[in-house]
Structures are given as C-alpha cells and as structure tokens.
Amino acid sequence: MSFSDLLDDIGGQGRFQFINTILLIIPGIIMASHPLLQNFSAAVPDHHCQTADNTLPGSSWNFTSSDVLLKAYIPVDEGTKLSKCLQFSKPQWHLTFENGSFFNISETQKIPCQHGWSYDRTEFSETIVTEWNLVCDLRHLRQMSQSIYMGGVLFGALIFGSLSDKFGRRTILTWSYLQVGVVGTCTSFSPSFEIFCILRFLTGMAVSGAVLNAVSDVEWVPIRSRTIFGTLYAFSFSIGQMVLAGVAYTIRDWRKLQLAVSCPMLLCFMYSWWLPESARWLTLKNKPDQALRQIKKVARINGLANKGKLVTLEVLKRHMQKEVESSKVIYTIYDLFRTPMMRRITLCLMTLWCCNSFAFYGLIMDLQKFGVSVFLVQLIFAAIDFPVKLFASASLMYLGRRRTLGGCMLLAGIMIISNAFISYDMKALRTSLAVLGKGLFGAAFTGVYIFTGELYPTVLRQTGMGFGSTLARVGSMTAPLIRMFEDHLPSLPGIIYGAVPIIAAFVVIFLPETLNMPLPETIDDVELETNDTLSVLGETEQEEVG
C-alpha cells in the first residue's frame, strides 16, 4: 500500500492533472528562451575597424561605391573579405586602384583597430557584442558570459534542490518564477557588461529552481501516466524555442528582446499560488492536515469529491507509513553515495546528465556557424523535437528507459562527430545532421529527467534531481569554452561534442529498468528493488544471447 494507490482512488489522470500540467507548461515555454537567448542577444555581426574619419565608410557600413575607399584603410583577408581586427597604420591609397593588389604590403603597416569597430546592422540592430565591442581580443568574453549564465544554473541547482526539500516544492517554485521575471527584466537595463553577467547569473539560478521543482507534478501522476506527463512538460521547452525564433525575428534589439522574454514570468508568479504543494512532502514534514486538504482538493477538481471524503488522516498515514518512518532520518547528498546501489545509480546519472548537457549546449549555442539564417536554424532545431520526442516517448513506454536513453545519446553522438569532418560548403547536410542530433539530445534529456525521478526514493528525489542537474550545468558551463579550440583546430570542438555522448551512452547498462515500476519511497526500497530488477535483466539478456 503506497501513495500511488491512494492517488488512483482520487483520480490520477483527471482534470486536475491536466490543469496542473498546463500551468507548468506555460512558464516552461517562457523560460526555454533564457538558455538560448544569447544566440540572438550575443550574435556576432560582420564587422571591421572603424575609420578615424567618420565621413568615410566606417561608421555606416555602406559598401556600395564606398567599398573601394575602405581598401585604403582596412586590409583584405581571405580573398576579398575585409579584416575584422586590423587596419593600416596609414591610408594605402594605391590599393584603391585596379592593380593595387600587386603592391607588397608589409605586416608592420597593419595594426589593431584604433577607433573601435563598424558593424553590419542589417540583421541585428544591437547586440551585447556590438554594444560592448566583444570582438577580436575580447571575443572570448561572449562565450564566458554564457558560461556565467550556466554557472548560475549550476548554483541554483545546488541551492534550490536542497531548499525545496526543506521549505516545499511550491514555495521555491513560486520564488523562482518571481526571480526570473524581476532579474530578467533588470537585465535589459544593464549599464555595463559586468552588471549584465551578474544579472544573467541570477537569472540562471532562478530558471534552475523553477525547472527542478516543476518535477513535483510527477508526484500527482500515477505510474502508468508519468511518461506522458513528463514528455508534455518537456515539449514546453521545444515550443519555447520556436517562440524564441519568432520573437527574436521580430525584435532585433537585445534589450527589448530580453524584456520580452522576462516580463511574462511575473504573470506566472501571480497564478503559481494556485498550484498545490506536494502531499507527500507535507505528510513527511508532519503536516498531514494540509496534505489531506490538498488531496480532497484534487479529488474535487477531478469530479471524485465523494471518494475524497473517504480519505481520512488514518487512511493517509497508512498509505504513507513507510515514507514517514524513513523521513525521521535527515538525508544529505552523502546519502546518494552511502549504499552500493545508490552509489551506482548516482555515479551513472552524474555521467548521463553531464555528458548529455555538454553535447547539447555545445551544439545549439553557436547557430551562426551553419551559414544560414540564425532564425531559421533556431526554428528547425525546435521543430525537430516534436517528431523525435514523440518517438522517444513511445520508446520510453514500450522499449523502456535504458534502451531509449542509450540509443538516443549514441545516435546523436555519431551524427555530431560525423559533422566535424564535413566541409562547411555543404550547409544543407551539416545543418540536417545537426538538427537530427539536437532532436536526439533533447529526447535523451526527457529520458534522463524521467529516469532520475524514478530511480531515486521520495526522501531523496529532489536532492537527487538537484545533484543531477548540478552535473548537467557543469557540462553546459564547459561547452561554450570548448569553442575556443576552434582558433587552433576548427573541427576539434565537433569531435569532442560527439565523442563524449557516445562514451556516456554505454553507462545505462549499469542502471536498472524502471518501466512500469512503482516509485521507490525509501533507500531500502532502492536497494531491494534495484537488485531484483538487475537480476531479472541479467537473466533476460542471457536468454537472448542463448
């Protein structure tokens, strides 16, 4: 007898679960913009050195008849392309003549830009790159700002994962919505790059807290429906990525774009007070009266008020007896490693979270490298999630968690590592492989998210989710920095992004299958059920080999 049995009695797949999921999907759509926002707010337009004389074609980017005059001030690299970071120490007027290219130009005549840069503003009116000149010697600050955001997500996972177990899922979720709305709005008024990075760090913290505590929805969903509801929530991020492409196409100024994706979170904060607190958590925190009110509320919304009246404190305590006894012990991150099976599960999930996030963000955080419209690539990257995640959802329900998760990561890694050896001129093929790889990484995220919630017991579920998300953020923090290796070997980042998930895919072999299994409530349940499951899996695999 468990809480899942009680949930079936009051309607585990009714109107309440539908409304609750929708109310969690809406902020998920909005928050999906923040991790990918710098594809647009930090886009790097074509640029060259600003000329000393503002009457010359350095300030307006007028490359018509003025293009000839620019050759006297700006060196030409790679055929006919103007240098991005160098200018002549003195005007070279002979280069404006038709046969000027035959003159020998000494490298000593070329110096770094002295008067700033001129940017092509046809695609973006203003980005943080153009506003704070994050190009040439400062170009790596662009990647660093994204790593700082991911550092905030990492810190948020560490902080909010533990706080939610102490203060409740809904309290932290509501606070996170407020923080995303307020801090995100303030970011659009950043007076300097340093303030921008600090506010992005705080936004990342809040996004992490919101995503982690939205998993409390799973505690109101029966075993047979967990995959469906988990996948629906995952789709909110895909929809959000598509919305971001449209909003960024409409709003080309980074400050206005930042404002557009932050203010709506204040509306989510206002209605988040309706969301129920986890009845499991309330019972474990010695608040059975509040838990009982939540259960009766769910039953009433599901049209089963009469069955809700049959649930008394005695009935609730009987269904939660094992969890209540286990909650008398104080649990920490140390408990994730204390017993053999918990240690195995944690180490495997650490690898899966970190490696999948590393490859995922390494792939999607530089859309300009594909050579086509960044808005179109963003839209396609988001759209691919729907067919791939639907396939993954069916696979999770019929083939199980292990095979689906391992297969998605393996295939995605192969596609990305193949892309590293394809010529940049083959834009369609490179983009197609990247799109499929991104879809599979997204499906793997859905799998590992559901898998983690099912492997950890109730008393450690939020701590485990927070710890797993922490490792994911370590991967996402590292991913932008790998791009710096492009200066030495252009294909090296792609090789690394593809090899890491291929290696990690084989880690799922050491995890038990959780398809149609009840959620473990205590560490003892994990040790017992996991050993039994692995024994059955081992016998099945031996029979298949035989």
Automatic annotation (TrEMBL):
Keyword Transmembrane among record annotations: yes
Main location: membrane
GO cellular-component term (any): basal plasma membrane
Keyword Aminoacyl-tRNA synthetase: no
Topological relation to the membrane, as annotated: Multi-pass membrane protein
Subcellular location: Basal cell membrane
Pfam families recorded: Sugar_tr
Keyword vocabulary terms for this entry: Membrane, Transmembrane, Transmembrane helix
A GO molecular-function descriptor: transmembrane transporter activity
Transmembrane intervals: 16-37, 147-164, 227-251, 257-275, 345-364, 370-392, 404-422, 428-451, 494-511
Domain of life of the native organism: Eukaryota
Domain Major facilitator superfamily (MFS) profile per the UniProt entry, residue ranges: 93-516
Name of the protein in its database record: Solute carrier family 22 member 6
Species of the source: Erpetoichthys calabaricus (Rope fish)
